[in-house]
Specification:
alpha/beta, seven-stranded parallel β-sheet, P-loop_NTPase, Helicase/UvrB_N, Type III restriction-modification system endonuclease
Length: 928
């Protein structure tokens, strides 16, 4: 099957923008093997989003420049072997050369020389020139219908720099680089973000002294500009002549839409661990204010399944291949094999739903899986669990579909798939390079080289082609794509932050049918389904922000549709009169000009509904810029002694608890519907274009099968881990309470979490009065002090996320501005303190650290120091809460009340309204 190429308007526009940069040629001093001299800038940048045909454009531009200026020598540099194979296949395809010659009315051929690592292997000590390289360099202007192109990846390009031969190149040179310089090439770079200005590959390219470097990509490298606090990152465009960005691609329907979905099984964020410390030899995780120090080679907490350990090293790896970064969140549940099975099943279900829809249009459906570990897919001695589980789930799905299918031809396709289930999938990994295994090589060929066959339902012998599931690690994450990828499933996290567009880009290209015809997105919406795990649930928002981030002016001009969005927000009818009045208003405020073009985007977004506004992040050398709050240190010094007193460390000492009482507490916890089927939901987040804006539409659906069922022994172990109750006591309580047993499908993570929540409540009630605080002989560091000295400033989010700039900041306030989190905190901060208040202010999180008898710590909200002759007479500590308290908040309130009773001249009070606070403060002042 040959693909049919079309002249698409956006590609034609890109070509014209490139051609305008070239002018004049000078043949006066030209050698037969060299390009003529042309007038052109050093760089030409062409930004084309993934899936919009940049390979077509840079292949055709070689034809165009040869026809117009006689430029005959081109070098294409790519960053990976996968991209090199894709480029090679495209340029050499007969249907491509036929199409381009028909469009340009020429009779050209491309002599493509592909340089591989084996080409430089020496034989019998002779340093011979690779024939492909010699053919490229020796290609002459006398071959009037031939374009000479050298295709090479960046690693090979760097390795050629110092190579020397026994023969000469171009009759003059024994080294490669001087010979290439002599032919005055045009260099084309694919995926320019991989070729930063200061990296070795880019230096090698510039060492070749090309007449021009054409960079084609969806993503370009970043550079830092400015210094110190003004340092920012910006895109390193050299000479951007064409910009088809992601938002334009979606708006013009040049690519598939994106539907992101993930199974939601986790009731609360109790299983989230945050990476707070990271070196080559040690990892520090934090959960619920508790830190876990893990040395290289040690296992992660048992939540992760008991077999995941820290490998460390320069890449800071986990044993499943995940690259860790500081502040990354790890959700222990998603590392359980059962969760991976859910993702596999969801991917298979989604694939066959798409496959049946596409069958009617003669479109073959393909799916791509990004996985953790090659051994889980390929393990010759003991088949990897992932491959086994995939084939098991696929077998069950095919059997069910075959029973129901009425279309006889599709039924035959499904039967052939079931019969040859091992042939339905293939893998390609970096570790595969150079392996001689025949079956593995066939899989690689199908993924990298046999695109036409993979897009066909039958081969040349009319046999069914059932292969349609591809597995990779990250080898295929950029550069490679296939138009008929409709489902991408991430069974591993991204690790380091890569472009979200790159991740979905493998399947953004519009599909082709089995006859090779490109399908249009104007008559039907084609969507790529991206299946991710729960820990990446914000992927849709990140993708949206990336799509619109390089097109800050989302709206270039005020339109009727845009007017209607604003009028709807204002509660007005969408009439012609109201549109005219809005236009005049925007013009008067100088937000638009007379042509309706938006000239002040920052002011215009204030007119838009919240969901249409992109919240930008300011980037500095330290990452996201967080607001700071300055301490008024002279005020803090006035309460130094008070501060030392309340931040002294204490430990909780519990009364002895008999095993029988512990068992009875647990038995109460096992009741009240603690056991549940772990069904969960699938969350769908679809990116759609409305009125020129990219909007996220969210829907949910129930999972139609129980998930995450645990063997009874594992269930007991996990319950023991979260409750710290010995397994034998849990088993005894279960046996006494449920002598006839429990539905085994209810032994799952949800049930463990439910029982633990109940247990915490029962435990808190039992111990609410059965513990004491015992003083320790040290004062620990707090978020306000270091080595006994108050800090100059702290992160604003330690005090609150919101700021009301209308607040007056009194001289005796502890900071330079007032910030808060809740409505009651805001109301309290509005209250002007009486003259008897020496100093006052909000207390940061993690500052006082009152130990909780249920585990963890709590800190109150406010401190007010009451003066007597300019000295602190008494301190008021305030906890501001609503009346509607959760169980954990009740525990925190009880702990604070008990804790502060230990101190002289300190009063503690919980308040639920500003009036209650006001009366409390007045009463305390009156007493003193």
């Amino acid at each position: 099957m040959e693909l049919f190429l079309e002249q698409l308007p956006h590609q034609e526009e890109a070509l014209q923008c490139i051609l305008k940069e070239f002018s004049q040629k000078d043949n006066s001093r030209r050698k037969a093997e060299a390009n003529p001299d042309v007038q052109v800038k050093n760089f030409i940048d062409v930004k084309m989003e993934t899936g919009t045909g940049k390979t077509y454009v840079y292949t055709r531009i070689m034809y165009e420049l040869f026809a117009e200026y006689g430029l005959q020598k081109f070098i294409i540099v790519v960053p990976s072997l996968a991209i090199k194979e894709g480029t090679k296949n495209f340029i050499e395809a007969q249907y491509v050369q036929k199409h381009l010659n028909e469009v340009l009315k020429t009779n050209y051929t491309v002599a493509l020389s592909v340089i591989n690592s084996k080409d430089f292997e020496t034989k019998k000590g002779r340093k011979t020139i690779p024939s492909h390289l010699k053919d490229f360099l020796d290609g002459s202007m006398h071959e009037k219908n031939t374009v000479f192109c050298l295709l090479i990846n960046d690693a090979m390009l760097r390795s050629m720099e110092t190579k020397e031969f026994d023969q000469t190149l171009l009759d003059s040179y024994s080294k490669i680089y001087p010979a290439i310089k002599a032919i005055k090439p045009i260099i084309i770079i694919d995926e320019p973000h991989r070729f930063k200005q200061d990296n070795k590959a880019m230096r090698s390219i510039q060492e070749l002294a090309p007449q021009c470097i054409l960079r084609f990509g969806a993503t370009f490298p970043e550079i830092e500009v400015g210094t110190g606090k003004n340092k920012q990152k910006k895109i390193d465009y050299k000479n951007l002549v064409y910009d088809l960005n992601a938002l334009s691609s979606f708006n013009q329907r040049l690519v598939k839409g994106v539907n992101i979905q993930y199974p939601s099984l986790i009731k609360e964020e109790s299983s989230i661990y945050k990476v707070v410390g990271l070196t080559n030899t040690a990892l520090t995780l934090k959960k619920d204010n508790k830190e876990y120090q893990i040395e290289k080679g040690e296992l992660l907490p048992d939540d992760f399944g008991g077999n995941l350990y820290y490998v460390g090293g320069k890449e800071k790896l986990l044993s499943n291949g995940l690259n860790l970064e500081s502040n990354m969140q790890l959700v222990s549940d998603v590392f359980l094999q059962s969760y991976q099975e859910i993702l596999l099943k969801q991917a298979i279900d989604t694939h066959f739903k798409k496959e049946k829809e596409n069958w009617e249009e003669n479109i073959k459906t393909l799916s791509l899986f990004f996985i953790d570990d090659i051994k889980s897919y390929r393990n010759k001695e003991n088949e990897g669990w992932l491959k086994q589980k995939f084939e098991e789930l696929l077998k069950h799905k095919l059997e069910a579909l075959i029973k129901e299918e009425t279309n006889q031809e599709y039924k035959e396709f499904l039967k052939e798939s079931l019969k040859n289930i091992g042939q339905t999938h293939a893998g390609y990994f970096a570790e595969d390079t150079g392996k001689a295994d025949e079956e593995i090589q066939k899989q690689i060929d199908d993924i990298l080289r046999n695109k036409s066959e993979m897009l066909s339902f039958k081969d040349k012998n009319s046999a069914w082609v059932v292969r349609r599931f591809f597995f990779s690690k990250w080898t295929l994450r950029e550069g490679w794509d296939n138009p008929n990828i409709f489902v991408i499933t991430k069974l591993r996290k991204s690790g380091s932050e890569i472009s979200k567009i790159q991740e979905v880009g493998r399947g953004l290209r519009l599909p082709v049918n089995a006859s090779g015809k490109r399908m249009s997105n104007t008559d039907k919406d084609y969507y790529l389904d991206l299946i991710i795990d729960w820990s990446e649930k914000d992927f849709a928002q990140s993708l949206k922000e990336e799509i619109v981030s390089d097109n800050k002016q989302l709206y270039k001009k005020i339109t009727d549709e845009l007017c209607d969005i604003v009028l709807h927000k204002q509660g007005k009818e969408c009439t012609e009169k109201n549109r005219d009045e809005l236009f005049i208003s925007l013009l008067t405020e100088k937000i638009i000009n007379r042509e309706g073009e938006i000239t002040n985007f920052e002011e215009f977004v204030k007119y838009l509904p919240e969901e249409y506004v992109l919240k930008e992040n300011i980037i500095t050398e330290n990452g996201r810029k967080n607001s700071k709050v300055k301490l008024r240190k002279e005020n803090w010094e006035k309460i130094r002694e008070l501060w030392k007193q309340i931040t002294k460390r204490f430990m909780v000492e519990y009364d002895q608890i008999p095993n029988e009482d512990l068992k009875n507490i647990l038995k109460h916890s096992l009741k009240n519907n603690a056991f549940q089927l772990n069904s969960g939901t699938i969350v769908h987040k679809k990116l759609v274009v409305e009125n020129g804006m990219l909007v996220i539409k969210e829907t949910t659906e129930d999972l139609n099968f129980p998930v995450g069922t645990l063997p009874y022994g594992v269930f007991l172990q996990k319950l023991s881990m979260v409750t710290n109750i010995p397994v034998h006591i849990i088993h005894k309580a279960m046996s006494e309470l449920y002598p006839d047993g429990v539905n085994k499908e209810q032994f799952n993570i949800n049930s463990v979490n439910n029982i633990n929540v109940n247990f915490e409540k029962e435990f808190a009630e039992y111990f609410s009065t059965r513990y004491e605080y015992n003083s320790l002989d040290f004062i620990a560091a707090t978020s306000l002090m270091k080595d006994g000295v108050f800090l100059d400033e702290i992160e604003q989010n330690l005090l609150g996320l919101k700021e009301d700039k209308t607040f007056e900041v009194e001289k005796n306030y502890l900071y330079d501005k007032k910030v808060f989190d809740s409505g009651i905190e805001q109301d309290i901060l509005k209250e002007a303190p009486q003259k008897e208040v020496l100093v006052f202010g909000k207390l940061p999180r993690r500052s006082v650290k009152v130990p909780l008898y249920t585990g963890g710590t709590t800190s109150p909200d406010f401190v007010y120091a009451i003066k007597n002759n300019k000295q602190v007479q008494v301190g008021l500590i305030v906890e501001a809460k609503s009346d509607n308290l959760r169980e954990k908040e009740i525990s925190a309130i009880n702990a604070q009340e008990k804790y502060f009773k230990q101190f002289d001249k300190i009063k503690w009070k919980k308040v639920t309204s500003v009036n209650e606070f006001r009366n409390c403060l007045k009463s305390l002042i009156k007493e003193e």
